[in-house]
Specification:
Number of strands: 38
Radius of gyration: 28 Å
Shape: flat
Number of helices: 5
Helix content: 10-25%
Structural class: alpha/beta
Distance between the termini: 93 Å
Length: 352
């Protein structure tokens, strides 16, 4: 895959300074770049690396032009957001292999399944009754699609994914290996110490342009549905519990977990190892930093944190001991405050 700088500049709507017919074959970081590759600078601290880079072109902000021209002989693509431009060029030059449309003889497909045009189905794929797969989708080896599953057009389901019955996935979605979509939610009632399972009769509905990371589990709804809206991106090892709703274009990083019936708004970002308890509402445009524990609803957009930074083990042990002493310290301070108030009142009475 290669593109001329002229083609790339037009694709990005960027100002081009340099040879328009220069062919670009890869996007690489500054320190690993070579001839016919393109790189980008989104932070001024990387400007000092420009003189040593071997890339044929750089994507930069307008304000970096003057400082770069004297240290760099290659072409420049000038845009307002180099990181966004980098993402778009990476897509343009994406070399991820895609199989040709073929249905493996080693797959098992129900006669009632409806398979679209130009679909790839790999070895040992199992497709149950009344499954629907849209045009140009890829279902890779070992995947299981249970009864009534619907997959839209242009989707890619990586190997060994399990999609339970009646799950619906929109168009242009990516589901990475070993993800499980539509497994039972964790619903039980206790009867004198014994657990009585509550049937999970809802399903999972996933919108368009959604990406689900490897080993991520999305539970089906108990009575209503679990809903992942358009444009959501989920990292690896995430757990989405039953009846959770996630708004459009929200991004969630690895190892986070959201308990049942919580609603997350649109355009949120949730960092790694965040824990969100059930039955909460999180409004739009919320950023939750890594390792934060969310135990109440968030009604105002902004950034939220609760994790403490690391310490040496010795200091952490001291802090833990002091934390356990906080209640006693608070009671002592309250007592001292009361005594000071009594002394003050006594002094004022004597002065009168």
């Amino acid at each position: 895959m290669s593109k001329s700088l002229q083609d790339i500049a037009q694709y990005l709507d960027a100002e081009l300074i340099g040879e328009p017919q220069c062919e670009i074959t890869a996007v690489l970081p500054l320190d690993r770049a070579n001839v016919n590759s393109i790189s980008f600078i989104n932070d001024a601290k990387y400007l000092e690396l420009v003189s040593a880079t071997k890339c044929s072109a750089l994507i930069i902000k307008p304000e970096y032009r003057q400082s770069i021209v004297s240290n760099y002989d290659g072409a420049l693509l000038i845009v307002n957001d180099p990181y966004l431009a980098f993402a778009k060029v990476s897509q343009l030059l994406d070399s991820t292999p895609k199989p040709i449309a073929i249905i493996s003889e080693k797959s098992s497909i129900s006669p009632s399944a409806v398979i679209g045009k130009n679909v790839f189905i790999g070895d040992f794929v199992s497709i149950a009754e009344n499954v629907q797969i849209g045009d140009n989708s890829i279902i890779e080896a070992g995947t299981v699609l249970a009864e009534g599953v619907k997959i839209g057009t242009g989707c890619r389901i990586y190997p060994n994914t399990s999609i339970y019955y009646n799950v619906q996935i929109g168009n242009n979605c990516i589901v990475h290996a070993n993800a499980v979509i539509g497994s039972d939610g964790f619903g039980y009632a206790n009867e004198k110490g014994s657990w009585i399972k509550i049937p999970q009769t809802g399903t999972v509905i996933i919108g368009n342009n959604v990406e689900v990371g490897a080993h991520t589990a999305i539970d089906r709804g108990a009575l209503d549905n679990t809903v992942i809206s358009d444009g959501v991106i989920l990292d690896n090892h995430i757990h989405i519990a039953h009846n959770v709703q996630i708004g459009e274009n929200t991004a969630i990083a690895g190892c986070s977990a959201i308990a049942g019936s919580t609603k997350v708004g649109a355009n949120c970002t949730i960092a790694g190892r965040v824990s969100i308890i059930g039955h909460l509402d999180i409004c739009d445009k919320v950023h939750i930093t890594a390792c934060t524990f969310v135990n109440k609803s968030i009604t105002k957009a902004g950034a939220y944190s609760s994790a403490t930074t690391f310490q040496t083990n010795r200091d952490w042990q001291k802090s833990t001991i002091r934390f356990r002493q906080l209640d006693d310290m608070w009671r002592k301070l309250k007592s001292i405050g009361k005594e000071l108030k009594e002394l003050k009142d006594t002094k004022e009475d004597k002065e009168k």
